[in-house]
Amino acid sequence: MLTLVGEEGGGTINKMENEFDSKLRIQSNSSSSSNNSNSNCNPQRSKSFVFRAPQENFSIQDFELGKIYGVGSYSKVVRAKKKDTGMVYAMKIMDKKFITKENKTAYVKLERIVLDQLDHPGVVQLFFTFQDTFSLWQFDDPVLTLNSEDMALESCEGGELFDQITRKGRLSEDDARFYAAEVVDALEYIHSMGLIHRDIKNLLLTEDGHIKIADFGSVKPMQDSRITVLPNAASDDKACTFVGTAAYVPPEVLNSSPATFGRPGAGPDGYASLKSHPFFKGIDWTNLRAGTPPKLALDPRVQSTSSEDQESSWNPSHVGDTSVNTNDGNGGYASASEAGSITRLASIDSFDSKWQQFLEPGESVLMISMVKKLQKLTNKKVQLILTNKPKLIYVDPAKLVVKGNIIWRHDPLLVRSRTFLTIAQFRKPKKVMSFEDAKQRALQWKKAIEALQNR
Ligand SMILES: Nc1ncnc2c1ncn2[C@@H]1O[C@H](COP(=O)(O)OP(=O)(O)OP(=O)(O)O)[C@@H](O)[C@H]1O
């Protein structure tokens, strides 16, 4: 049985979560006093800090949840439609216990405060936040409790720029210029606010195809920052701590120096010389966002992407299904019957810090499940973990040691039923492994692995 409470005792967890609350909760405006999530009003710069994006009393039940946009190191981002208003958001759901345990509270707080104060078309907008308690089931064991911190962000329906490059094979020079210009414009704004982002890896796209920068958890406010940063927010000015994602790290950080504004090529005169570079000839910097973006290449595996279709697929049970970008021929959503068979928040254990030790920095879990590894004589319970590296391992859940690293090639997967998944490893040592997933997600495992094979 996987229990969060059972491992450490409810008292400790409660203490941790209270600690989280006290660190995160800052006097906020209430929903009744504020209906201005879209306004440009300046936040109040005083001891009693007032958020522009209010802390609401909503619950996840107020939303229809759809596909999972992605899984970060300490969050899941899910498409969420508010039932009463019909507004669609990208809901960033974070487990408070996990964040507290991993000492990430300050980063969460910083992202919340910074996003609250940024206002630029190239930066993803924060609309509101709320806290919630989910009831979880695992293999029909008693209910578990997840206390979450949720941020309702502007939904970037165009997905990641990375996927556009993958689908198109390469960008034309004009398209590359367009995206580069929008990134430069957004970074100029971010830098003008006295912030260094430090983790520009997810360049997201709006439905129209304009760039949005997200994920401000690693942001570094400089001393003269125009952003109000409250006590307890992350500060590693002196320590030169490594923050960000290894593959995207700027050269100065690799040399153990602090991050600087210089990354994208801005010189001592700021962005002027960069923007007047011959590559950007013809770019109208003052009306950048009025330009026509490159046409988005749709995911060929998704048969229909109209909003209508997406909305008809809403089902709360998807929230626990981390089989991201799978080829289910159903617009990226599980069918109703598949969804029904997915335990609510089934893969919540992906938030459990004990699995994080098997990941490298920046690596995130795509699917995770307690399964039975079928062997000749005995069956063993193992934790099967699929990551975006991509990597597929199974771990002894009691000893917390990796028991196997499955190296796959093409077409090694066989689904015998909703429960049984067989994987053939063709590289040496050659072997065939079978797993039984009591949550009947064999097909989803297959699709998630195949999606990675096809990348
Ligand atoms: N506003 C958004 N709209 C659509 N998709 C989003 C949005 N924000 C994030 N995503 C997707 O969700 C994924 C997870 O985002 P998140 O910010 O939780 O973590 P991350 O930045 O990818 O990873 P890490 O936290 O490890 O740095 C992203 O990779 C992105 O694809």
Automatic annotation (TrEMBL):
Describe the reaction catalysed, as an equation: L-threonyl-[protein] + ATP = O-phospho-L-threonyl-[protein] + ADP + H(+); L-seryl-[protein] + ATP = O-phospho-L-seryl-[protein] + ADP + H(+)
Instruction: Please report a single Pfam family linked to this protein.
Output: PH_3
What keywords sit in the KW lines?
Answer: ATP-binding, Kinase, Nucleotide-binding, Serine/threonine-protein kinase, Transferase
Q: Where is this region: Disordered?
A: 26-45, 294-335
Which stretches are tagged as biased composition: Polar residues? Answer: 302-328
What SUPFAM superfamilies does the record tag this protein with? PH domain-like, Protein kinase-like (PK-like)
Biased region (Low complexity) positions are: 28-40
Residue ranges annotated for the Protein kinase domain, each copy included = 63-359
Report the top EC class in one word: transferase
Can you tell me where the transmembrane regions are? Answer: none
* Taxonomic superkingdom: Eukaryota
Q: What is its EC number?
A: 2.7.11.1
**Protein name per Swiss-Prot or TrEMBL:** non-specific serine/threonine protein kinase
Origin organism lineage: Eukaryota, Viridiplantae, Streptophyta, Embryophyta, Tracheophyta
